[in-house]
Write a structure and sequence with these properties.
The chain is globular, with a radius of gyration of 19 Å. The chain is built from no helices and 28 strands. By secondary structure, the chain is mainly beta. The two termini are 23 Å apart. Helix content is 0%, strand content 48%. The C terminus is likely disordered.
């Protein structure tokens, strides 16, 4: 999701984390010793690939750092603000700046193509099967008169293949599995879209509690779609037909209970669904 939120990323023998007051640091995973730090700006959640850490900044800058040493490899600057976290796949970094989604050469930092979505890019891109999926909004995020859309682009050219209109904001990354893109709209509904043409295969509606809140990105495992909603629930939905498998109410301990769960679920091979604050289902 867009925004300056605390993040932690584990990769190889390193753990990377943001600083509360800006910047980030890298720790040795085995010992917790500080390996290096980078203190320029507030960073969105990074992407790491082939030994390089890609850090997007809200001020329109994207940095590529050596993941082991922290040495800067290249830096790209854009006149528009950086709106979402970058995604690095197959030698290309996909990143949103204002209304545009850019494809940037991961080795050189040169722009390969740019696509103007007609609205602010509001979800980190998902890359699958030669396609790039992301969402945009042309107005105030929670104004239902605004044009909220999910898009699919050709990953090599940036050409638009299709877009899907939603009355509710789409601010999380789609999940893609077996030719279907699963798009969560503001924690109130999930749309299953055919990746070939964007046609709707099914829609699942949550138990909307009327609040305005952002939901998590969905996760797919073993034929089931998992996601958290603004109605305080975690859902498991069959990906074939959108029927509900189960729903669990999240009750937190402490001064508040039953708050919406915003974190994206992690599904383990043992069949556990984990989301934060630490909850295991």
């Amino acid at each position: 999701m867009a925004g300056y939120r605390a993040w932690v990323l584990s990769h190889g023998n390193m753990v990377y984390s943001s600083r509360v007051m800006g910047g980030m640091y890298a720790l040795e995973a085995a010992t917790g010793d500080l390996a290096w730090s980078y203190n320029t700006g507030y960073y969105l959640s990074p992407s790491v690939a082939d030994g390089v850490l890609y850090l997007g900044r809200g001020d329109g800058r994207l940095d590529a750092l050596d993941a082991e040493s922290g040495e800067e490899i290249w830096s790209y600057e854009n006149d528009d603000f950086g709106s979402v976290s970058p995604t690095a796949v197959d030698g290309v970094v996909y990143a949103g700046f204002g209304n545009s989604l850019l494809a940037i050469d991961a080795k050189t930092g040169q722009v390969l193509w740019a696509h103007d979505s007609g609205g602010t890019v509001v979800s980190p891109p998902t890359v699958s099967g030669g396609l790039v999926f992301f969402a945009s909004s042309d107005g105030f995020l929670y104004d239902q008169s605004s044009d909220h859309r999910a898009h699919a682009l050709d990953a090599s050219t940036g050409d638009l293949l299709w877009s899907f209109a939603s009355r509710e904001p789409i601010v999380t990354s789609p999940a893609v599995d077996d030719g279907v893109a699963f798009v969560v709209s503001d924690g109130r509904q999930v749309n299953a879209l055919d990746v070939a043409d964007g046609s709707q295969l099914w829609r699942f509606d949550t138990q909307d509690n009327g609040s305005i809140a952002l939901a998590s990105s969905p996760a797919v495992w073993d034929g089931v779609l998992y996601f958290a909603s603004n109605d305080n629930g975690v859902y498991a939905v069959n990906i074939e037909d959108g029927t509900l498998r189960w729903r669990v109410e999240i009750a937190r301990t402490g001064y508040q209970r039953g708050e919406p769960a915003f974190s994206s679920p992690l599904v383990t091979g043992g069949g556990y669904c984990i989301l934060g604050p630490p909850t295991v289902i």
